[in-house]
Amino acid sequence: MNLDFSPEENAFRQEVRAFIKANYPPALRAAQDAGRPLTKEEYLMWHKVLAKKGWLAPSWPKEFGGTDWTPTQKYIWSEESAEAETLPPLPFGVSMLAPVVYTFGTEEQKKRFLPGIYNGDVWWCQGYSEPGAGSDLASLKTKAERVTADDGKEYYIVSGQKTWTTLGQYADWGFFLVRTDPDAKPQAGISFLLIDMKTPGISVRPIITLEGGHEVNDVFLDNVKVPVENRIFHENQGWTCAKALLAHERSGIAGVARSKRNLEKLRSIATTEHSDAGGPLLSDAFFRRKVAELEIDLTALEFTELRTLAGESSGKGPGPESSILKIKGTEIQQRLQELALEAVGHYGAPFLRDLGHNAGIGPDYADGLAGDMFNGRKTSIYGGSNEIQRNIIAKAVLGL
Amino acid sequence: MNLDFSPEENAFRQEVRAFIKANYPPALRAAQDAGRPLTKEEYLMWHKVLAKKGWLAPSWPKEFGGTDWTPTQKYIWSEESAEAETLPPLPFGVSMLAPVVYTFGTEEQKKRFLPGIYNGDVWWCQGYSEPGAGSDLASLKTKAERVTADDGKEYYIVSGQKTWTTLGQYADWGFFLVRTDPDAKPQAGISFLLIDMKTPGISVRPIITLEGGHEVNDVFLDNVKVPVENRIFHENQGWTCAKALLAHERSGIAGVARSKRNLEKLRSIATTEHSDAGGPLLSDAFFRRKVAELEIDLTALEFTELRTLAGESSGKGPGPESSILKIKGTEIQQRLQELALEAVGHYGAPFLRDLGHNAGIGPDYADGLAGDMFNGRKTSIYGGSNEIQRNIIAKAVLGL
Amino acid sequence: MDFSFTDEQSMLRDTVASYLADHYSFDQRHALLAKEPGWSPAVWKAFAEELGILGAPFSEELGGLGGGPIENMIVMQEMGRALVVEPYLGTVVIGGGFLKHSGYAGAEALIGQIIAGETIFAFAYAEPQGRYNLADLKTTAKKDGSGWVLNGAKAVVIGGPYASHFIVTARTGGGQRDQDGVSVFIVEKGAAGVSTRDYPTVDGFRASEVIFENVKLGADALVGPEGQAMPLIEKVVDEAVVATCGEACGVLAKLHEGTLEYTKQRKQFGQPISAFQVLQHRMVDMFIQVEQAVSMTYMATIKLSDDKQRSKSAAAAKVQIGKACRFVGQNAIQLHGGMGMTDEMAIGHYFKRATMIESAFGSTDHFLARYEFLSLGQAA
Amino acid sequence: MDFSFTDEQSMLRDTVASYLADHYSFDQRHALLAKEPGWSPAVWKAFAEELGILGAPFSEELGGLGGGPIENMIVMQEMGRALVVEPYLGTVVIGGGFLKHSGYAGAEALIGQIIAGETIFAFAYAEPQGRYNLADLKTTAKKDGSGWVLNGAKAVVIGGPYASHFIVTARTGGGQRDQDGVSVFIVEKGAAGVSTRDYPTVDGFRASEVIFENVKLGADALVGPEGQAMPLIEKVVDEAVVATCGEACGVLAKLHEGTLEYTKQRKQFGQPISAFQVLQHRMVDMFIQVEQAVSMTYMATIKLSDDKQRSKSAAAAKVQIGKACRFVGQNAIQLHGGMGMTDEMAIGHYFKRATMIESAFGSTDHFLARYEFLSLGQAA
After folding, report:
1. CB contact under 8 A, B398 and C2
2. Alpha carbon distance D95, D76 (integer Å)
3. CA B3 to chain CA mean position, Å
4. Model's pTM, two decimal places?
5. Which of A4, A275, A398 comes nearest D283 by C-beta?
6. Would the CB atoms of D207 and B350 count as touching at under 8 Å?
7. ipTM reported for the complex, 2 dp
8. How far apart are CA C273 and CA A135, in angstroms?
9. Between C277-303 and B322-343, two packed helices, what is the crossing angle to 10 degrees?
């Protein structure tokens, strides 16, 4: 048992830090600082630098572009990335779809799809949730009928509605769960399809979320024709892919490095803001205490994640224990957002989106904190709500 | 809407206060101050004074000995009783059994049993819970077979086990729920019997609770012969009596007046105890805050109870809303016990029962606080656990 | 002791509720907020003329309905249920409060204008540096002949864009945080040297940053005692806090009702999600919070007329309300799942209002500290 | 980074666990505590001779097993699982800690006696007035020739009745709460002028009030630097706190396991109560608390050897443990229902120990304040 980094690991940290410093795109940094929604190009700037460097996808197997880093190196990478506030590559292709493709796809599918994901040439979106099916994903209704078309080839004709499709407004392709056997039990009749978003019959409609932003969308599919070779894995066995993907989605969600960074920001805000008595807010006994309790909670989460990673590196996969990371990770993120909003007092109220950032109304750091807090409520809902995570732990870990 | 007391009500308060001051038994006061378990005689001292005065049972109908007080007068009575730390009459006869007798009993039963309850001549105990049935009271197994004996009279032959019988070691009589129809649905085959505890076949065994005290007991019944005329209400309809009794048990449980008194004591302890910095503990920012939050919570409970009483006086009975009072009341009591234990620091640890009170080890007020806290955990379990209370509210109030 | 409403009070509630049901539905409000000016002078006019509620807490001699704090609570509760942005709080409760309690010479005339819907007040008290300390003021008013010259900046003046007049706290003496030296002025928005930057707030209201630059005020601009206005300000803010608690009771009730309704309809795993015990107990805890918040609001409303208990009760109520707003608001969203995150469902808008109420006039920590000071004395 | 145990460490755990399973069952412990002296010298002898664990954290040159904080944690965790009252903490962790870290001349000999089970220490540090402030001392040691004269009273000395020696903090200079002027002494229990009043504690241990009346000590009674012992005391207490966290991990695991087991057996309304979703989620939250507590204990154990991080990490771990003890302990009882309230079931005894651990060496508030000071600096 020890927590020390080896000299090699420390050297790696220096390398990472220097690389980020030298290569992070200034235009992207400026866009982030301005606090406005990013453009499609901006979203991909850092992605493309990393792809060129070969550091885009540390978790992928080496043969498809992974880095072959140790768990400790990955940990260092995520720490440094958070510290430098780099924009993580969009997860839809890199973290969600790719593992499904390289695990369940044919050789041809791997060759066809992985490079586009890696290089950032193809923007992927997710077609999982449906209006009627939230946490109960397997009850999805979007149907795909298999037909032989006039060209003699086989297609699925897909119709239905998907929702909560994040950044779907920019997507070139999407991965969809569809029902190919309506008579089978809910989880047995599902297939996993890749669909070109330009196919006729697809339309994307924005969903405005409560803080006023447009990040998620409804996707409507009306007799969309999808070649059969775009199916990953066997027909009616898409649930196997879906489960693998969901486990992957959960494991990164603790967000320890990002929360550490946000805790730093909170401390900095609370050093600038005044308490009712006039001193720095961070000297206020109760605000201090809330910061301290959060810091301790975050440390506990960090070491729980490290224990989980250690278990993983010794052969166990990201198991149901990772649900703990989801639950505590999102609770801590939400608590940070609440405290930041609390810290800025009256200036939590202005809604300055239409006036632009740096409007000179209140301190810059206050702008958007309420929106972050409102928007942040989603983290305990999506990816399997925290209630569902507790069901998973109850069943899979506690045997209840 | 107003919170003022009328001049008549204020005069009533003075009368009550003067009466308690003049008549509270000094021997009982001394026993309470010594902090040891009370004797049977001590338990009944104040009961008998109140019976003589006619103030024993304010809630009973006037004809059986009730006081006919308004809800406000009852409220004043409970405030003054708590303020003076009087020992409330034992609830088993006065608050639990009596309402069942005067509501469901025959004229003869009322005449036979109510005076003994009122005067304190008969000590009653409760035979409800069974080892296998906790919150699921209706699943009880103690069986009663109806037979005609050699004397030509009808009897029930009762066998089974009851548990958590509070102060059963002193009881002259008990009221029992027994199963008279084993084939009916759980709640349909139950009868409500009064049993002389001296009847052959009854044995009482102490249960020592975790803080080391002996308050509750197991009661074993082995072919106990109970005359049929000791049954209250119809055969197999005892559940009706049981439900009425349970609702009554819940309604007094908010314990606002007692908690106010205990909050005063806590403030007094925290004024005497030192903080780590050396000043009074009550000047410590965090201890103060906990006291303040508790005080506010208690105020909210007080006014919720007053609203409930107001609803009651305008015709609504103690409804399922009273489950709120049980939940919040016990939470506050337990919180008070935790804070008192916290307040005394190291001196929460000594277990001085065998050395006697005033052993000179730590401050007197610290003695027994840990035991109170341990023992106090029962309040969120008995009388229908707080989880059951939430089920009741969900079903009966929220329609879930 | 008595917790019932009079027939007049019940009627007042019904009148407001029924008007808002017809004229202030979720969709109507949505349309209203989406375009300038972001509030409805027509609704305000109806409040004045059709409903007569702008006179609710004023005596009949002044043309009011003869009510008081209970009437304010009743109206505010309905405002909360409909998420009304029109400035009853700023104008009737706060503006009216200053006029009623200060012995101000022009009070009668101005109250008449409030009741008629002609004068609208916004309370310009907070400053960028001052957090929730009412006495932390850099804005100054200096004597200038018989009048005053006002300089300073006020932060997040809620309802500023709707207002015809500001009620302004300013220093006429003393140091930045002294209790002594604080005075209150009425300033016309159109006066020379007054400028505003207007913006929406995250919960759909409009607010302003207000700058006073050498604003010349007449002697009659002063409300209440010169330099000794803190007790007056505290009294009016106590009333505003308790009225806001009333509003919160309406918001909380809607959050709870909406969640009950949604979970009964929404199906997952083959049953309504209201069948899951964990969600049932969550809704019970929400219900308990709402009931406790209502109890405390009643208590604090009644005690507004008891000068010894007033501030302490108001602080206690705001603490309870603040906690309830957070717990009930966050859980309402959680139980709505993804749908709760959308702009098109009402629930998120109630959540946003609840969040802003949580910090209105001070956070839960602020009011806990105030309560402690009033209940337990000065800390170490 | 590495979280695995060495083979030796795993063996140590198994050895202790298997001995305690055979000799320290719930019933055996119950019988032990019920009669004088309330602990088992025989078990202690077995720890020394049969298991050799009293040397776990001492170097092999001194006759120990060559371990350190991790070994202490492993042993303490098993002590927690079996609710062992024998004084490993006071003797090996605290007594041993003072001897190891102080450069004390007689250390080698005394450590040998500890390992052999011949010398038993109890830590007499708390005073009736001092709460959790280690420097708040009225006990004095005055120079007397080359030796000292000790006077004062110590409160709730855990393990006092089992001890052969006390480790005593006393003032050799400075004011009542000064950091300067604090020294540490080893005092034989049998020395003239030492008197004790012994009693059981609510969680089954024995403790003493200890009075020193003109106790004459030789020069060799002083451990560590005269008047400047606070850093030494803090280091040893940090180690004791973290070892107690280790014990708590054992207690918490048993509370959680016992609750899982009970709820799976206990039937209500026709099904095991573990089928109720509300109870399932409660047990998940208990599980999360236990896991987080274990993580923090590992972290703090490893950081004991890092003097810069040591105190802060220990404080953080104790905060986490304190919260877990309360939440897991109270809910274990709640989920056991009435049965949890009885003396005859083990669960209540784990709850009582968890409650006492919550305040051991300081409450959660105490360690939060300490953490804040170390992480955020002095408060306003």
Report:
1. no
2. 15
3. 28
4. 0.95
5. A398
6. yes
7. 0.95
8. 11
9. 80
